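Morning!

As promised:
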Amino acid sequence: MMERLFMSPIFKNKMAAISVVVIAVYILMALLAPLIAPYDPDAVDLDDAKQSPGRKHLFGTDEKGRDIFSRVIYGARISLAIGVLATAMALFIGTIAGLVGGYFGGKIDAGIQMITDITLAFPGLLLAIGITVVLSPGFLTVLIALSLVGWASMARLVRGEVISLKEREYVEAGRAGGSSSVKILFRHILPNCIPIILVAASLKVGAFILAEAALSFLDLGVRPPTATWGFMISAGREYLKTAPWITLFPGLALALAVFSFNLLGDAARDHLDPKIKS
Amino acid sequence: MLFFVVFAPLKGVLKRMSFVVKIKTPNMTTILKLDDLHTYFHVNGEDLKAVRGVSFMIGRGETLGLVGESGCGKTVTALSLMKLVPPPGRVEEGEVLLQNRDAGERNLLLLSEKEMRAVRGKEMAMIFQEPMTSLNPVFTVGDQVMEAILVHEPVGKREARSRTIELLRAVNIPDPETRIKDYPHQLSGGQRQRVMIAMALSCRPEVLIADEPTTALDVTVQARILRLIARLRDENEMAVLLVTHDLGVVAQETDRVAVMYLGRIVETASTEELFARPLHPYTRALLESVPRLGEDKERLKTIRGNVPGLSHIPSGCSFHPRCPIAEEICQREEPLSREVSSGHWVECHLCKND
């Protein structure tokens, strides 16, 4: 089983293989956080503040004496959860909008296109900030804000694919065989969209993790004291000269996560997109 | 205008008469009858008349060939029968009468989309030109044939599976028990077209519309597929509408032929009659443009000019600008369809049965 998994084509690409391993480590870290973390991430110990990395605190401690290693591990929970859930929601809204618009065309499509264009006209992060300001900041708000920003590009992507797929002969053959529109959409068109949806999704996770960190950095994300990478970076930047590790480690964790998801997305695209594969 | 007033009723009478005669000529029961079908495409406020009054009938166990150049409206006619004309196209006028096993004769154009879905695939099935792309690449062929059965018939998966194997055997796919697990890319073009035929036949339709079924296949495979269609037609007593531009296929595979030019049927006759005594100048020109074996010719004979665009359909007889024998009347008046000998109809002012 494991052997087959590691023989699968994605592992032929070394960078992709590394990214899969790194992502797997992140996921394990997030799931097993209470077991791995040596300290309570929220335990304040002012006597122990701003300790440099060492044997006692692997990544050092922050200005309130909290263990940074533990906080980075707990931060992975928020980052991954938001990255994955926001992607799932954006994917869900975007896929349905793209399928319906692309397939039925006409006024329905024009309406959906208009909403998509309006959404895309805003700089993504600005729109997300706007939404979080209107709703009160928190986990759910970040999730809603990011999915409301991210669905539009998904919708556009899926719509384009559907428009090309619906002219395929097997779609016409399906209709000539008496299948209903719903059946054709879910049997013939959606399954053939899955490759591009997967690629877009894996790239989106990285982008959403970054966006979540940005929102947290601006204090618009999940409320402190919950450990998030963005807020840790933000809180640590006052001590950049005296205690750089406070920002360094969450920053590294963030960069590595985003980088891995982007690598995975690129590898998936190379593998699934026949145009590139040649 | 005066002309129209005088001739319009006459045209109607003639048309009605034509049915009486047409039904009598072949001694078989009519299954599908098209009457004065018009299909237009509305583009930029203009009506592009792709099909302008097509009438024909097909009997049980009969193959009717529908021939003509690209763009003459063959495929649009076929799609109109299924009510699958893509927008902005619309069937504007006419009747498509299909004999139903239980409900008797019904005009398909009056059926709702839901009723029509029950007709498609079950009473009237269609196979397409491109076998390479006619199957969904993400499902196995067995899955797709089974699906075609399950859409229409209240049978279980197991029954559908065994019928799928039977169908694939009937279309000469070797070792169907294992082949049903194959994906389309694992099959050759000919095999894929066989699978398409199996899907089309899955619910034993009364009418099979084959839109250039062999154009994309090489010649030996083509012959086998055509023979397969003919065998299945005889076994199931289907009516087959064979849409093609290949006169060789027409000569071999059809009982009767309808020749189409610019959205109208200009000549209908039994296949032997048409090849022996083509009357319409267009039919003659088509037949003359086919190269013959043993003929020592530098250039093939062509029909002068091009097919006019649908937005510039010539007045009178639409063939007159390209017709070698056109006279003044051809420009002025639309010819009516006349029966020159039993079952041989031609739409031309000038040709006589000689």
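Chain B touches chain A through 29 residues (CB under 8 Å).

Hope this helps with the figure draft.
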